[in-house]
Design a protein that fits this description.
210 residues, alpha/beta, 60s Ribosomal Protein L30, Chain: A, eight-stranded mixed β-sheet, two-stranded antiparallel ribbon, 5 helices, 10 strands, disordered N terminus
């Protein structure tokens, strides 16, 4: 299990850790993680050019439909998600935005993608009269989906709420997730980020498909 306690976020600059690239872009921000939507007709030559222009450490493809895509060595991995979830995936990979009690860095993201080539994105949310009710409801929703997953080797869970999660909240979530999964704790990563949505508690997860 990876939980890094971040105290000083003064190193954070204006360059995001993850950027979604389109073939029509003229400006290439230089993040650590370059993301692209597979159905936008990217080919190997275009991806090589993208990596060179962007200076990204590694590339990740987002698969928003059922189109076939040949595995390429230049791609670190593919994440399957819905079209309306693309921004949520980018936010999850943009680990510099996780400037709360726990966070991970791009090295941890790289390690996660070494667990597999194909990943699935899921997210759940809950609202309640109290934060504890929302935490329990969202956690049980997430766990109910994770227990159906078999043969996965890596998992990233992001906690998103209007305030930094308490230690009790972290303990409840991590215990529930780890009890529902057969993944080695070494390959389960946690991060947290702040949302401006009031009364909303959200959990996002990326897991390596078996």
């Amino acid at each position: 299990m990876t939980m890094k306690y971040q105290i000083d976020d003064s190193y954070i600059d204006d360059i995001p850790s993850a950027v979604l690239y389109r073939q029509t872009m003229d400006h290439y921000p230089k993040p650590a993680i370059g993301c692209f939507i597979i159905s936008d007709a990217w080919d190997e030559e275009a991806l090589i050019e993208l990596k060179e222009k962007s200076g990204a450490w590694f590339l990740v493809g987002l698969q928003i439909d059922d189109s076939e895509f040949e595995h390429l060595d230049i791609i670190e991995g593919i994440i399957r998600c819905q079209p309306d979830e693309v921004n949520n995936v980018i936010r999850m990979l943009n680990v510099k935005s996780a400037s709360t009690l726990i966070s991970i860095d791009v090295v941890d993201i790289k390690s996660l993608f070494e667990c597999g080539n194909s990943f699935q994105f899921i997210q759940v949310s809950a609202t309640g009269d109290s934060i504890s009710e929302s935490v329990k409801a969202a956690t049980q929703q997430l766990v109910s989906q994770l227990v159906e997953v078999r043969h996965t080797k890596g998992l990233l869970v992001t906690i998103e709420s209007i305030e930094s999660p308490s230690l009790d909240t972290l303990s409840y979530i991590t215990e529930a997730v780890e009890n529902s999964s057969s993944i080695d704790d070494e390959f389960i990563y946690y991060s947290s980020s702040i949302t401006d949505e009031p009364d909303c508690f959200r959990l996002k997860a990326l897991y390596a498909e078996g």
